């Protein structure tokens, strides 16, 4: 099974992508309004997906280009 989640939001730079699923990761472009965020959400998603034998990945064309997250879970035999 494959689930795609796409947005048209802030996007990610190529330098950010390798770190997007790391716990407590916060990027320099985070606004003052976002300072209360912990940087745990995507790390939790990754842990849950991997606990079910799946994988999660992200692609982005760059800043202000949105992002697409892909969750792949094993199917029934």
Give an overview in words.
The structure is a single chain. The radius of gyration is 13 Å and the shape is globular. A three-stranded antiparallel beta sheet has the order 1-3-2. A hairpin with an 8-residue loop joins β2 and β3. The chain has one helix at 41-51; strands at 2-6, 55-59, 68-72. The longest helix has 11 residues, at 41-51. The protein has one helix and three strands. By secondary structure, it is an alpha+beta fold. 14% of the residues lie in helices and 19% in strands. The termini are close together.
Instruction: Provide the low-confidence segments as ranges.
Output: none
Number of strands: 3
Mind describing the biggest β-sheet? 3 strands, antiparallel
Structural class: alpha+beta
Portion of residues within helices: 10-25%
Summarize the structure.
The chain is an alpha+beta fold.
Layout of secondary structure:
Elements: E1 2-6, H1 41-51, E2 55-59, E3 68-72
Antiparallel strand pairs: 1-3, 2-3
What would the keywords be for this entry?
77 residues, 3-stranded antiparallel sheet, 19% strand, globular
């Amino acid at each position: 099974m494959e689930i795609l989640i796409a947005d048209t939001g802030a996007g990610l730079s190529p330098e950010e992508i390798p770190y997007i699923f790391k716990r407590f990761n916060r990027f320099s472009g985070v606004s003052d309004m976002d300072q209360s965020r912990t940087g745990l959400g995507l790390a939790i998603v990754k842990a849950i997906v991997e606990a079910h034998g799946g994988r999660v990945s992200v692609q982005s064309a760059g800043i202000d280009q949105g992002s697409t997250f892909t969750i792949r879970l094993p199917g029934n035999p």
